Amino acid sequence: MIQIENLTKVYRTRHGQRTVLDRINLRLERGRNVGILGCNGAGKSTLIRMLSGAERPTSGRVIRNMSVSWPLAFGGAFQTHLTGLDNLKFVCRIYGIDYREKIQFVEEFTELGKYMREPVSHYSAGMVTRLAFALSMAVEFDCFLIDEAMVVGDTRFHERCHVELFQKRKDRAFILVSHDANVIKLYCEAACVMHRGRLLKFDSVQRAYDFYETNPS
Predict the structure, then answer these.
(1) CB distance 46 to 197 below 8 Å
(2) pLDDT confidence of residue 84
(3) Where would you tag: which of 73, 160, 176, 209 has the fewest CB atoms within 10 A of its CB?
């Protein structure tokens, strides 16, 4: 179970304080999923970072009673002077996993070839995304955090991500944030809307969709 209690995030800007998240609450049980709709700048990615522990809230708390992934396909924590293989070793060492058992999967999924043993600083943005997603799948979590960037891109990569996450790991919980209502309708059994700093819950994905379409900001 993941429980969000009165989570608030306030940033200081040149124009004063800006409240991005305002006392939001959410509960997600093991094996369930929820989509969170919101326009660009609504605070979706901020919420995902706080759920993963990468960023701290101004107030409130996140209770995690199951293992939670970092945001899928997030490559911001890579050591770019290290190779893709070295980054795999680093991640596996953190989670107590034998990296040798994961090399074949990561190499086959990323299709990086010889670049797997080249510094990540030499990678294109697409290569970094493929490596980041593969490393995310190399560690098994109870709940996956999915930013909308993961479910877009070229069709072939999208399909492979779909198989790995939504088919092979369909028994896991996940939280998917997106500004695209069609993505939420496709993958999620429940939905909320980020609206003016608050997280609005709905009893069906369709009701969330209808509200989002008529209240875009």
Answers:
(1) no
(2) 94
(3) 160
